[in-house]
Amino acid sequence: MTTLFINIKELLQVREQTPHFLAGDEMKTLPVLKNAFLRIEDDLIKDYGVMEDLTDSTADVTIDAEGKTILPTWIDSHTHIVYAGNREQEFVDRINGLSYEEIFNRGGGILNSAKKLQQISESDLFEESKKRLEEVMLQGTGALEIKSGYGLTLEAELKMLRVIKKLKETYPVAIKSTFLGAHAFPAEYKDNHEAYIDLICNEMIPAVAQENLADYIDAFLETGYFSVAETEKIMQTGLQYGLRSKIHVNQFTAIGGIKSCVENNALSVDHLEVVTDEDIEVLKNSKTMPVALPTCSYFISIPYTPARKMLNAGLPLALASDFNPGTTPSGNMNFVVATACIKMKMTPEEAINAATINAAYAMDLLESYGSVTKGKKASFIITQPLSSYYQIPYAFGSNLIESVYLNGKKWS
Ligand SMILES: N=CN[C@@H](CCC(=O)O)C(=O)O
Ligand SMILES: [Zn+2]
After folding, report:
1. Same domain for 406 and 351?
2. Which ligand gives the minimal distance to the CA of 221?
3. CA 162 – ligand 1 centroid, Å
4. pTM
5. Which atom in ligand 1 lies closest to the alpha carbon of residue 270?
6. At what angle do helices 154-170 and 122-138 cross, to 10 degrees?
7. Does 157 share its domain with 241?
8. Binding residue per annotation — 248?
9. What is the pLDDT of residue 181?
């Protein structure tokens, strides 16, 4: 089945060849075709060009996109959308003056979510999680990574990962799964970290690999959570089982974690609200993608990733939502892109590149997602009529999406 979209006001992120990823000044350019057409066949992009070059207008269906913008769906390379219940009480506690750290030290935070997750059935967890997935699909997300990490026991971690697998089998989005057993130390291991690291490395990772439930491995490398040495052990054990790492690091403190992640060939380092000059140096010329999560900074009022400093130093940057019950109860990538522009001073071009091309790199999906390229998946957003794509971050509170196509089919 062939569908032809004609008279597209702006067709964004059009690339004959996909770059490896975009870094520094390369991120300033967003290739745009004005007054364009786009032809898709089944689930793939077949052709595109400017209207005056459209010689063959045969198609099973033709859709007039006059005044509208078409862009690839967002790629959200860092989420925790599989969780139970919510943490709205902690939200109010923070308004009343408690910090994220104080809430965690009182047994809240990740351990609060773990308690709820351990109690919920797998089918109820699927039902709760699928609502969030359907919501972000309507908001234009066409591929996402989902982490475990609220189980913190072998059984509960496997429950989360099986739910992720079922979501993957049920919906027309690309999903990558990450094992995050090292999200926090359960209370019973508070004074015996070594035993929990052993449990992760000797029992959890082998069991996850045995059922083929994860693509990547993660840890919360942070003061008060997992040390550099503990995270290294987890990254290295993961590699033995074919799991490359994507690590939570430098959210609150810089303790040498980024260097260790780069040395252990991490695919991405995520959060980076605190970034030192040394961190920037080690990321230069590495294959590790830095990932910023600006709506986490927004929600819990912590510094934003210093994007300008990083881009000016020639680094690449990806953007993701971090959708989770504690620090970012939203997976709206339109708002992520807007927040990156408004608060991190990224230009619209840089932010869109960061949420498409570079985000696809951060979850090994560049071959099939992230740009309008022949042979890639026909997953894209059609906007309402816009004066220009600048509206996407500018009108940050408006829903500008008219429809979303996922793998060649109209989803909404
Ligand atoms: N910082 C670590 N993990 C999650 C949030 C965990 C939570 O509070 O539930 C994050 O990326 O922000
Ligand atoms: Zn996270």
Report:
1. no
2. 1
3. 21
4. 0.98
5. 11
6. 40
7. yes
8. yes
9. 98
